[in-house]
Design goal:
The protein is 76% helix and 0% strand. The protein contains four helices and no strands.
Length: 117
């Protein structure tokens, strides 16, 4: 997964360079804008894949790895123009984030207890 994400980031960087080159002339501005949108979309997809891969990683007994889809789904629902949906999405983001970070801190502390030193 990491090599795919790195390749996607390199391709996105090349698309951004092509976008800047295309935006420098009036005749090629439309194509430059298209390159920029494609590069941004590719970088966004690569970042989401990386985050989902990281959050989906088994972190032991904390259960924090199960919260990745909850956080991503709640973030996608947050901009909907409905107060009830926004409140529920905000609460889901808050609780899932607390669970993820709390699980990380507990796991880190437990691992530090077993290190030689």
């Amino acid at each position: 997964m990491a090599s795919f994400v790195q390749g996607a980031y390199i391709l996105a960087a090349l698309l951004f360079i092509l976008a800047l080159a295309g935006l420098s002339k009036h005749e090629t501005a439309r194509r430059g804008n298209q390159f920029g949108m494609a590069g941004m979309g590719l970088a966004l997809v690569a970042t989401l894949l990386l985050v989902l891969d990281y959050l989906g990683t088994d972190t032991g007994d904390t259960g924090a790895g199960d919260q990745g889809p909850v956080v991503v789904g709640a973030i996608l629902q947050a901009p909907i123009d409905n107060l009830a949906v926004q409140v529920i999405a905000g609460v889901a983001i808050l609780l899932a984030s607390i669970n993820v970070f709390g699980g990380f801190l507990v796991t880190r502390r437990m691992l530090n207890m077993f290190q030689k030193g």
